[in-house]
Amino acid sequence: MKLRHYETLYLLHPDLNDEERQERADKLQKIITDDGGQIVKVDPWPLRKLAYRVQKQTQGWYVCMEYAAPASTIQELTRNMRLDESLMKFVTIKKDDTFDPAVLERAKQEAEAKAAQEAAEAESGETAEESADTANETADAGQDEGKE
């Protein structure tokens, strides 16, 4: 069974509460894992204003789900999403023909390291841009002193 790397973005009805949205996500994840797939990440977005009406709605909850699954899983996933009336729209993209868990693990580690670095910068109260600006100002001041 060959796993491929996929990403599905789906739009949920704005009237769903947190529990109902989580229920839908769990149902879709179960379809993937029951068929031998692996969930890479699930990224629920906050309630968003839509650029145009979808099923007479102007807002919706987006969820981006990245996973590895066999090609046959996509048919079942698509069938279930079409039957669910709370799902207003969806799109599935094949990111790669192969799925390498080692590459995924490295990407996760890099993302965690980046998040930790950003958290440390936020904690110190200075962003990378601010520290670069400070370094530039210090260098500029040193050049000005040499001119006098």
Would you give an account of this structure?
The protein contains 4 helices and 4 strands. It has helices at 18-34, 71-83, 101-124, 128-147; strands at 4-12, 38-54, 57-69, 87-96. The protein has a 4-stranded antiparallel beta sheet with strand order 2-3-1-4, covered by helices on one side. The mean pLDDT is 84.
Helix and strand layout, with pairings?
Blueprint: E1 4-12, H1 18-34, E2 38-54, E3 57-69, H2 71-83, E4 87-96, H3 101-124, H4 128-147
Antiparallel strand pairs: 1-3, 1-4, 2-3
Gross morphology is flat
Strand % is 25-35%
Strand line-up of the largest beta sheet:
2-3-1-4
DSSP helix count?
4
Describe the biggest sheet? 4 strands, antiparallel
Supply the helix-strand structural class. Answer: alpha+beta
| Rg | 22 Å
For the record, give the distance between the C-alpha atoms at the N and C termini, rounded to a whole number: 73 Å
The poorly predicted ranges are none
Q: Output the helix-strand order.
A: EHEEHEHH
Provide a concise account of the structure shown.
With 148 residues, the protein is of the alpha+beta class.
Any descriptors?
single chain, 148 residues, alpha+beta, 4 helices, flat
